[in-house]
User: Fold this.
Amino acid sequence: MPKIVDHDERRDEIALVACKVVAEHGFEKASMVRIARGAGYTTGMLAHYFDSKQDIVIAALRLILRRIDERLTQPEDPGGARPDLLALLTEALPVDEHRRTECAFWTTFWGQVSTDRRLKRINSWVHKEYLRLFERCLAQCWAEWEAWPEPVREQVLRSLVTFINGLTAGAVANSGDWPAERQVEQLRLQLALLHGWAMHNAGATRRAAGT
Assistant:
């Protein structure tokens, strides 16, 4: 009886190998041959699933985003307790080998965006998805979130995403300077600063409006 092949699973497998190859060798040297060798397939097998290296890279982006979404998704607590925001957002940082590979892939991808129109469109979509994921985390974890004025929430969200992107890039480029504990402490500080700023500005906005 012939073996049943899960084609979606195989595409994900190839995309994950591509993440590792790009993270290790860079975008330019991550050839179809290298990706095929890493996956244990021929280039002909890769061509059966993807038309080009760019298509594999885009599949890898979507796979990583889906995995991050899964890690940042917390089930509702029956007792109504809110998740810990620091622990939740730590899942997006390069704090272990698996996450470092994902983040190294991201930073390598960012270096290609400015010269490729299709990748610019993909990056714009990915950025919007990141904003959505982090906004969901903030709304889940901070009871005050919905009460803050829209401009305050927008500023906090974009500042948080900018910080995590910068921390990710720094930790990937200089892993020795950024052990997991230091990344988490910096994130803890940033969250405290953003929360304090938001509480102050939300109060000032309400006072100015006379509410």
User: Anything to note?
Assistant: The radius of gyration is 20 Å. The CA atoms of residues 18 and 35 lie 6 Å apart. The domain at 75-211 is CATH 1.10.357.10 (Tetracycline Repressor; domain 2). The mean pLDDT is 88.
